[in-house]
Amino acid sequence: MSTGNVWSRSGGRDEMKDIRRKVRRTQTITPFGVGGIIDLQGESFVAADIRSWGNQGDPVDSPRLARKLGVRGFRSAAVIPSGKAQYVSRRGPGYVRFPRWLFCPKCRVMTLWRHEAEQRDKPPRCGRCPNSPQLAPMRFIQVCRDGHMGDVDWQRWAHSRAEGHDQRQCRVKSLKFVATPDSSGLDALKVMCFVCGAYRTLEGISQKHVLKQIGVRCSGSQPWQNPDEGSDCEETPRAAQRGASNVYFPLVHSAIEIPPPSDLDTDDEAARRVMAHSMWEELIETGDAPATDVIVKHIAKRCDVSAEFVENLWRAHTADTSARPEVNSAIEDLSIAEWAAFTSSESEKDSTADFAVRQVGLGTHVDDPVSLQLLHHRVGLVVVADRIREVRALEGFSRYESEGRERLVSVNPVARAQWLPAVESYGEGIFISFNEYALREWESSAAVLRWVEGIEGNLEASFQIERLREKTGPRLLPRFVMLHTLAHQFIRQLSYDSGYNAASLRERVYARSHPIGSQNPQQAGIFIYTAAGDSEGTLGGLVRQGMPPHLTDTMIRLLESAQWCSQDPLCADPTGRSLANLNRAACHACTLLPETCCEIGNTLLDRILLIGDGQVEGFFRPVIQAAFEESAVAVDAP
Fold first, then answer.
1. Is 432 helix (H, G, I), strand (E, B) or coil?
2. How far is CA 42 from CA 123, 124, 134, 239, in A?
3. In terms of Cα–Cα distance, which of 446, 447, 375, 438 is closest to 614?
4. DSSP code of 335?
5. Residue 530: CB partners within 8 Å, gap ≥ 6?
6. DSSP labels for 454-521?
7. pLDDT tens-place string over residues 478-526
8. For 215-227, what is each residue's pLDDT tens digit?
9. Taking phi first (over 0 means left), then psi (-120 to 50 degrees means alpha), and beta for anything else, what does residue 155 get?
């Protein structure tokens, strides 16, 4: 199965040069979506906004996600078959070389690169040294909390500690990036002006106000923008390594494409045509105005539906978006509809080309061992998904700190985005829901509640709180942490049993709390799935592991492996682990997964809530104890 390749372009946005590099289609959403930095064979680029796409891209259909994000639709980057790049005119997303400050690894001379110097299929090279070695990008860049990014003013940095009059007056950008053997730290690296001799080491460059102290201000723009598109930014810029994790926080939304409700089957295709019409967005923005009737009749005529149908759809959309905050409703409504689709007894009958599921159960019997009976008591439904389609869309990004939507940089920073870059993936999966009565009984334990209150306190103090609340809801429920940890352990165990590696699997946790008074159903389940970028997207390995008796064996083994960690007792430290102490008993040796697997960045994990310890009763503790006792009896039997 091939995901295809997208060929990126470097150069200024208004003078795009035909200089192509390979990028996977899925990488144009994350981690190398709009605003993200990508390193390719010693070269460094940043993805430009969606204006660089022009009219290129393949349409991606996801009406539910489009409606909640307030856009007309989605596009995925155009795929160019391997080896055919020289013979096609299709272009991919625009990528601009960044940082522009480069240096020669041999003579160490720094160069401020110009877009006009780009040559097709050739990286920047030094013109001073024999054999013309390839120029390397500078390690540090500057970012600010408003999401702007730019080159560090290395000329100002080199002269910021000038001593003589000639050094203070020097304005020549003739710099060297020198490495000395005196130390292995940043104090061994210095930027030096070889005209006046002024220099400064990189020691302290990442301190919060060091750039402000030397008079550097934020550019108020992105590397791909024209100078006139910048803004007056009052935020203090800060130097960061271009590969640092706080340089880019993409905001990606995803949805599993599910069958529409049965009462909308006949109108679903017509509704899609109406919402895809070029004047639908204008109708939404117009509201109750004199021009509304004219727009409604025009859309109805073009889409071959009645004016009443268009008006009812418009009023339903307006009521839906105004009744609740857009950010929370987008996440909450999508998860509720997906939960209903997985748990409905009619789902197998309503299967479509994009969503085919079957309820299979655990396959336990009355004469099974006690451990399996206890496991059966805790599990509700088991559903295998023979085929699913997932759509992932990039709305924007932030930098420096992931502080939510108030500092979000849109994929189109100069106008409201009418469409978003997205990718569709096909795959298979296993959905497991859990017994609500057993969960509520476990969650009512005072020890469990006190334990989760500690994690909740760390969450409230975290800079990631807004992003995480979109997944957890207004309250962090014990079931969320427990089920999230179970999903991680499940993926790790499936990577041994299913034929997929861990990085190929993803999770969706259905355990979100709802506001007080909400009529939404309580959720308690996980969905582990794989999604590939082509039209096949399945090897059958996950479906097989979700069938009896494989699933019970897998769950018993994962619970047994969750009992210990090679990093214990450090891993089980109750004071917390990871950034902002958002994890308890969880580390890379036992629970954490590749970034592509986890929907909340490897946070809110705790093996204690899964298997318990001397103070806290784990949800599956009775299952583990029964399994150990059965194993001991089997070993002692003659």
1. strand
2. 9, 10, 8, 21
3. 447
4. H
5. 427, 428, 429, 500, 504, 505, 506, 537, 538, 539, 542
6. HHHHHHHTSTTHHHHHHHH-SS--HHHHHHHHHHHHHHHHHHHHSS--GGGEEEEEE-----TT--PP
7. 999 999 999 999 999 998 888 788 888 999 999 998 887 777 788 999 9
8. 999 989 999 988 7
9. alpha
